[in-house]
Amino acid sequence: MAKTFAPMAVTFVESKSMLKSANVRINTNDVPTSFILRQQKPAVSLPGPTGDTRVVTLAEYKEAALCLAEAFAEDEVARYFIDVPDREHWTEQERWDLHVEILEYITYAHILKGLVTTVGDDFGAVALWMPPGQNMDDLWTIFRSGMWRLNYRLSTEGKRRFFTEFLPLLHDAKHATLGARDDEAWYLVYIGTKPSGRGKGYCRKLIEHVTKQADAEGRACYLESSNEANPPIYRKFGFEQKRTVYLHRAEKNVSLDIMVREPVVVEKKKMVKGLKD
C-alpha cells in the first residue's frame, strides 16, 4: 500500500479573486504560501483495461474510495490528520466519516487528473496513479474534487500536520529521490485491497497494469509505503527502497519508506532469416 495523499502545491494567496468568485473563503494563514501552482504538461497516454483490471469512472468514485477506506482503516499515515489532540472529543464514527470523506476527495481528484483502476468483485482492490507530467494542484481540480474542504474539515492541528509538515515532506522526498526525473515518473499514490479481497493477486494485477506501460516508455515508478510490512511485497515487483522519511508531530514518529522501480528493458532478439549461430 502506498501512502495516502498526493502533494498539492497551491498558492492560495495568489488565488484570492478566484476563491472569492466561488463564494468560498479560505484562511490563508493556515496554508503555507510556498505551495505554488505548477504548470501542467500534456497528458500521457493511459493504459486501457486489461483482463479484469478496469478504469474507475467518476460515477464510481464513492465505491472506490470506500475500498481504500477499508484497506487503510488503521494506517498510521491515514489517521495522522484525524487522530489529533484537538479532536480527542470526536467519536470513532466521526473519525471514520472524515477518513472516508478525505479518500473520496483524493479519489475524485485522481479520476479527473490521473488514473484510478480496480479489480475484483465489488471493488476488491483499487489503485490511484498520477501519470508523468500530471498533478492535482490546479484550482479547478481542487474545487471540483472537494479537496478545498480540508481547510474546514481538518482541525487546527490536522491542518498543521497536512499543510506544513506532510505535503512539504512528500514534495521534497520525491524531488530528492528522482531529481530531474521527478516530473517524468509514474507515481503510485495509493493502492489498497479490501480485507475480503486479499490473497487473490489483485495488487499484482493493478501494479503490473501500469508498470508494463512504464517499461515500454522507459519510465520509473515511485511510491511511498506507510506500512513496514509492504516493502518486501513491492520488491517483488521491482521496487527498491531508497530512503525513509518521518512525520514528527504525533506522540511517536510515523515513517514512510520511499521506493522506486526502474524501467525494465526487454531486449528483443531480431530473427534474421538464414543467420547461423
TrEMBL record:
One of its GO terms (molecular function) is acyltransferase activity, transferring groups other than amino-acyl groups. Pfam families: Acetyltransf_7. It comes from the Eukaryota. Residues 126-261 form the N-acetyltransferase domain. CDD domains: NAT_SF (cd04301). This is N-acetyltransferase domain-containing protein. It comes from Pleomassaria siparia CBS 279.74.
